[in-house]
## 1
Amino acid sequence: MPLPSGIKRRGNTYSARYVLPRSVQRIAGRHDLVQALGTSSLSDAVELAGPILAGWKAWAVAVGKGDMRHEPEVYVRRAEVAHRLIRDGIDQWSPELLVERAREVFAMQQAGEIGANDVEAQVDLDVERYVVQQQDVGAQIDVEGVRRARRAALGQLGVTVADSLENYLQERTGDLTAQSLAETEKRCRVFVNWVGSNVEMATVTRVTAGQFVAKVIQPRPVSRVTKTKEVSACRGWFQWAMLRGEVDANPFDRMQATLKKSKRGTETARRTWTDVELMTVLHGLRDDRREPLLFPLTLLALYTGMRLNEVCNLRREDYDDQAQVLHVREGKSQAAVRIVPIHPVIREAVAELAESSPDGYLLPGLVPGGPDRKRGHSIGKTWGRRIRSLGINDRRLVFHALRATFITAALNGGASKEVVQQLAGHEREGVTMTSYARVLSLQLCRAAVAGVTFGAADHCANETERAGIIHHS
């Protein structure tokens, strides 16, 4: 079966091939043009070759007329743009699409691929299609959107919200963790998608921001805290834009105050563990030979109040055998850097973990994961699945609830709020707790930790210590 015109087979894949007219061969100094298509499917090859062959033919016509200003690739790119419009079709023209296409043709003009007249003709045609479509359905024409498209074609369009956000995120890469950066992008991208990526930053008013909060953020079935974070992300972005001269004022300033707080009673997102629930988990995890680190992970979090990644980052040198303390050397804030006395119930367990560690970590062999490559990423998920298999189905009982359980037990044991804040690494009244470290002595902290008790769970932990906490395969 003969191949379609313009298609050539090389081994198992196809290429596009165009034999130049003889008159053009003499001028161009070549016989044909060939480009690999990277496919072994003939139907795909025919589709891919279409705009390439069309571009080459247009180039040959230009060369035949003595126009040698551009290489064949320029004509191929033009043909690909036209081919994409024909292939995809445009069911719904919009001002956003007009601006996007105007920016594209302006970029082609800047690259010397098309002339100013071509740009003007393209924008005129797009606008005509948009106007006709709007008239057919009886919809109102967005005059300002058409004006933006005209300015985009002339290179006079101001910084768009999409470009501004991209620049903002790129600049924040150095001072935000990967996870925080991803969350910021996700929250700000909601606004970009709602207002339109090609809208100019300078045209975003306080009315625009207010409508976004009222129509998009406020109706969402999430907590007010989550809504506040979403608005705050946009506020931070526009604050940066204001300092860069992209906007004169921040339209999201004080916008968090407009978020309504529901007066309905709702269940808390987390709660503390009961002694019975802790017994269930400790008994279930202590003999788990498939995941032997889950048990010491739980003990360390429960009896120190540390966060997941604070526990997972503990190294052998963070364990002071003489003083019987653990050093948390970094965390989510300056207050997180602290010294935590080791509870008597887990002293032998911590000593064994430090002595038997093959890689210097108290919890060895953890593989970093997630956007920020945290050591606790995978084991935290494994822990959650494992406790559900033990019958703990209350979704409020997550790993972080162990920290709240420790704090509650310390307060119930008679420790002062200030001591507990220091032990947990909480900030106090806007001032990091490290400012109080010299005032709150280690003896006070040690007494507070010793006062933490979980009833029968303490007995379970002690039994495990005598039997050995590490299971070697």
Note: The longest strand covers residues 13-19.
## 2
Amino acid sequence: MTWTAPDVVPTETLVGGHERPMLQSWLDFHRQTLLAKCGGLDAEQLATRPVPPSTLSLLGLVRHLTEVERGWFRVSAAGEELPPVYASEAEPDADFDDLDTLSADRVFAAFHTELAAADTAVADLPLDHVFHIPWHPDDYTLRWVYLHMIEEYARHNGHADLLRESIDGRTGR
């Protein structure tokens, strides 16, 4: 049987209130939007790279954002010592390139696991929590990570929208 991504309807974002819940609602909205772009597609469609010469696929975007969630929230902000999910020094773009290494259901399970772990890792950190990453001269705050992740998802959701339309013509949420 071919695995099919479930349909997801993104929740609405908060329009007022405290900053942290508003940031979280926008991040969750974009996380769910990515999943919505994948909804109803089988594993082969998810791995399709429909816009040559680009190697982007919906499954690659899910793998990439799994990697980015871990890197910014857990490793950088929370200081957890974890290996990358897909990439390695030998294959830094494995999240996009090595789509045959895991089934689609395992990719989505890893994505959901990483989202929960990322949220838990920073739940008790204030938005003004400051951290440093060795390869960059500036310090960062958790607030910056939330804003960056919202931007990262928004950009990649634009890619996902074009990929999905190229696969089956579906547009919108």
Note: The mean pLDDT is 92.
